[in-house]
Amino acid sequence: MKSLKIIMALMATLTVTACGSKEPVKPIEETKELSDIEKQVKNDTDLSQDGIELSDIKISEYGASNLVTGKVQNTTSNERNIRLSLMMYNTETNRMLGAVEIEVKNFQPNETRTFELKIMGDYTTVDRYSIKVTEL
């Protein structure tokens, strides 16, 4: 019971101090800074590939790997089976440093799905990545 009173007192204190602020509150989108990996690595993906649209692509570090997420939409009038291939590059050495892929099956017309591509390894020298869409 005593710890509940302490928590309530802390919450009241935090609420009161935030209310008296003279600084305007910015929406989260305006204050979000790019992570180190987002600054280091350029997304070089063609967002429109053969009736497939890619959007909201983001890269982040996830432990000892990189995680690329986004949305994919089938803009055709046909059901599709596709492969999304993530390729990581170093432009200075002109080398592909790694690749991973996932399959999207029974992809209905106008359907949108989220995707996640995780690639393991030390990618500190990666400065560019792209996602390529191919038919299965």
In brief:
It contains 3 helices and 8 strands, in the order αααββββββββ. The chain has helices at residues 2-19, 28-31, 36-40, and strands spanning 42-43, 48-49, 52-62, 65-74, 80-90, 95-107, 112-120, 128-135.
Overview of this protein structure:
The chain is an alpha+beta fold and 136 residues long. Helix content is 20%, strand content 49%. A four-stranded mixed beta sheet has the order 1-8-5-6. The longest helix has 18 residues, at 2-19. The protein contains three helices and eight strands, in the order H-H-H-E-E-E-E-E-E-E-E.
Q: Which key features would you list for this structure?
A:
about 140 residues, alpha+beta, four-stranded mixed β-sheet, 3 helices
Q: Bin the strand percentage.
A: over 45%
Shape: elongated
Tell me the strand order in the biggest sheet: 1-8-5-6
Q: How many H/I helical runs?
A: 3
Give the overall average pLDDT.
Answer: 82
SSE order: HHHEEEEEEEE
- Please identify the oligomeric state: single chain
How would you summarize the topology of this molecule?
Elements: H1 2-19, H2 28-31, H3 36-40, E1 42-43, E2 48-49, E3 52-62, E4 65-74, E5 80-90, E6 95-107, E7 112-120, E8 128-135
